[in-house]
Specification:
By secondary structure, the protein is of the alpha/beta class. The chain has helices spanning about 10-25, 40-50, 65-80, 95-105, 120-130, 145-155, 175-190, 230, 245-260, 265-280, 280-305, 330-340, 365-380, 390-395, and strands at about 25, 90, 110-115, 130-140, 145, 160-165, 190-195, 220-225, 240-245, 310, 320-325, 340-345, 345, 355-360. Strands 2-9-8-7-6-3-4-5 form an eight-stranded mixed beta sheet, sandwiched between helices. It has a four-stranded antiparallel beta sheet with strand order 10-11-14-13. It has a two-stranded parallel sheet with strand order 1-12. Strand 3, helix 5 and strand 4 (about 130-140) form a beta-alpha-beta unit.
């Protein structure tokens, strides 16, 4: 009984967030951008309800106006065209779209390459589908993917790779040459590329970002997932989209329709249309604020350099910090929640390579970041000192 799910944990991120809320802790755990979307965006959803636009099942592919706006946006930004009639699919968030794509294109017994550490649902969705996740290490401290490691992981059963770009939790932004090599391998070995681009707008200004859609050789094997959750702060609205060549999208929409009946929520789609149509530069505005919050957290982390090692991330909005002299990241995250009143995510939640790390989100509000680090400083101060000898640290952190 429950053979597909009994060994899969409930989302550790959601679990920690629930505990934080129950305890009144300050949360740096869940990656929710703490911004309000423009009032006009919210009013667009209200208008859709009041005008009767949301009283019926919508088209499974999503409302055409939104698909056209998405197509125009990518043509303008990337000089890449996706046919709004056949190659754009509105989803109930990026993760629902990713699930539908994996379920459509992979079969039991297939292998899926996953650069690791990576977003925790990507570790477990393949297991539910009977697909074997094959982890390819992102090497610290810069968290780069070594193409030689990727080549060694490919077998005749390899049917796909998930690229989280920028990566959650490490902030890795893949270079154009890395993406070209991945595309070449996919073409040569005949496997799919599933790319999660929800953090694409949140990249350090000094770092060059290349979307996989601009790599022409990848197009025929590429499925792209986007979300309005991060870019437009619509995380509770559950609306995103998928881009793929027409033959691929035609098959994915079959599974998509079976799982959501008639596409993403119609009020949410009209809100997304207003966001993308009337406020297309909001993601860049949010990004500038997040860079400021990143620097705020960096300064506070620097004061705790005795306890944490860290690199400034290239993208996304997380610090992935290495613990000094502490055994279990899971136990330590629990101690911080219970004793310091600060919620963070243990790195083990993100798969192999995450052990011994913590993920801290700087998408939190400025005062939340300050309060969290005030609590952390008091916590470490209350311990006479963090003993770096592993045998002694067990006595403190048992």
């Amino acid at each position: 009984m429950f053979s597909k799910t009994k060994d899969i944990p409930f989302s550790p991120i959601k679990d920690i967030q629930q505990q934080a809320e129950a305890r009144g802790a300050v949360s740096l755990a869940q990656g929710i951008p703490r911004f309000l979307p423009p009032l006009e965006v919210r009013r667009a959803a209200i208008a859709a309800i009041e005008e009767g636009k949301a009283d019926f099942y919508g088209p499974p592919r999503g409302i055409l106006d939104l698909r056209q706006k998405i197509s125009e946006w990518h043509l303008s930004r990337e000089k890449v065209f996706y046919d709004p009639e056949k190659e754009v699919l509105i989803t109930a968030g990026a993760l629902q779209g990713m699930s539908a794509a994996l379920a459509t294109l992979l079969s039991p017994g297939d292998e899926l390459l996953i650069p690791s550490p990576s977003y925790s649902p990507f570790l477990n969705i393949p297991k539910v589908l009977g697909v074997k996740p094959v982890f390819v290490p992102l090497k610290p401290p810069d968290w780069r993917l070594r193409i030689a490691d990727l080549k060694r992981a490919i077998t005749p059963r390899t049917k796909g790779i998930i690229i989280c770009h920028p990566n959650n939790p490490t902030g890795t932004v893949y270079t154009r040459s890395e993406l070209e090599e991945i595309a070449d391998l996919a073409k040569r070995h005949g496997f799919w590329i599933f790319t999660d681009e929800v953090y694409r707008f949140f990249v350090d200004p000094e770092v060059s970002y290349t979307p996989l859609g601009e790599i022409g050789s990848a197009r025929s094997k590429l499925v792209r997932l986007m979300s309005f959750s991060k870019a437009f702060s619509l995380s509770g609205w559950r609306v995103g989209y998928l881009l793929a060549d027409a033959p691929i999208a035609r098959e994915i929409v079959k599974v998509h329709e079976m799982t959501v009946t008639a596409g993403a929520s119609l009020p949410a789609q009209y809100a997304a249309l207003a966001a993308l149509g009337d406020f297309p530069h909001i993601p860049e505005q949010f990004s500038r604020i997040l860079i400021s919050r990143r620097e705020r957290m960096r300064r506070r982390l620097q004061k705790l350099a005795e306890y944490f090692e860290f690199q400034v991330p290239e993208g996304a909005y997380y610090f992935f910090v290495k613990l000094k002299g502490v055994g279990s990241d899971i136990d330590f995250a629990r101690r911080l929640l219970e004793e310091a009143g600060v919620a963070v995510v243990p790195g083990s939640a993100f798969g192999p390579g995450g052990e011994g790390y913590l993920r801290l989100s700087f998408a939190a509000k400025e005062d939340e970041i300050e309060e969290a680090f005030d609590r952390l400083e008091r916590y470490f101060s209350d311990l006479d000192k963090l003993i770096l000898n592993p045998e002694e640290s067990v006595k403190i952190y048992r």
